[in-house]
Predict the structure of Ferredoxin like protein.
Amino acid sequence: MFGRGRAPAPGAPRIILRRRKIDSAALRAMTRICPGACFRFGARDRIEVSPESCLRCGTCRTVGEATGEIEWSGGWSAVASA
Ligand code: SF4
């Protein structure tokens, strides 16, 4: 589920981690606040992302703008814009 290099599902946002030496507290918090459970702790306690269950809420996009650790691209969902 959290593999690398996998193409996102059609319509799913593309979420790429821009790695720092240490994951920020904000990025680590994504494991608790992402409603799609797309973030988790992986090898060596580093954050991994798998957007297959993404709900396109945009929370990680906001966090990524603040820390620069998340590159987010893709359209907003019908749910988010309705
Ligand atoms: S957009 Fe929302 S659901 Fe999707 S990965 Fe980011 S925080 Fe999780």
